[in-house]
Amino acid sequence: MVTELTDSYRITGRIRDERGREVEGFVVQGFDKDLGIYLHPDDRLGKDETKEDGRFQIDFSKAAFKDWFEQEPNVYLQIRDIGGREIINTTSKKNTTGRMDFQIKLARLHPNPLEPDLYANGLQRMMSGLRSVGDAVDLSRDDVKNVFELLGGVLGAWTSYRDEIVRVCGYDGIQVPEQPRRVNHYHVTRWDEAVLP
Fold this sequence. Notes:
Blueprint: E1 8-16, E2 27-32, E3 43-49, E4 55-61, E5 74-80, E6 86-89, E7 93-94, E8 99-105, H1 122-136, H2 144-159, H3 163-168, E9 187-191
Parallel strand pairs: 1-8
Antiparallel strand pairs: 1-4, 2-3, 2-5, 5-6, 5-7, 8-9
């Protein structure tokens, strides 16, 4: 099977604050990560400023990144706030579709280092859910619906600890630090096709 390489590339996305409101005036700059041979800087793909609805769009061609070593871009973004301070530098990822969509949610302004650990005893909670399936269901009463609901909840909890499963679907994985309420972090989700129109 021969795949036709595209010459037209587009990075789209939207930035929201910690409350889900669109952010205007942030500068988003796209780069192609290079191998770093001979101190060669990464290729600049373009930049845009977020609009009133938080959206940005960067269009570029193969000429912006193509060299001897690569046929497709290895894209990452640098995002600067209104004051020009760099706040996000995403990880790089190769793209073969010609389209990339980033949905970004900014962090809380003041994280609390004393917040409780959200993931404490996660394994015990999961095992407790599995044990309770037998306690809550009586198959003689045709409780099949409850069985499936409980099993669905347990499987949902299990997959939240397994980033590898979602990576198979083309998703970068769950990007949350070990203590999400105690440290400042951003949610960056990248899809290799546009998710929002």
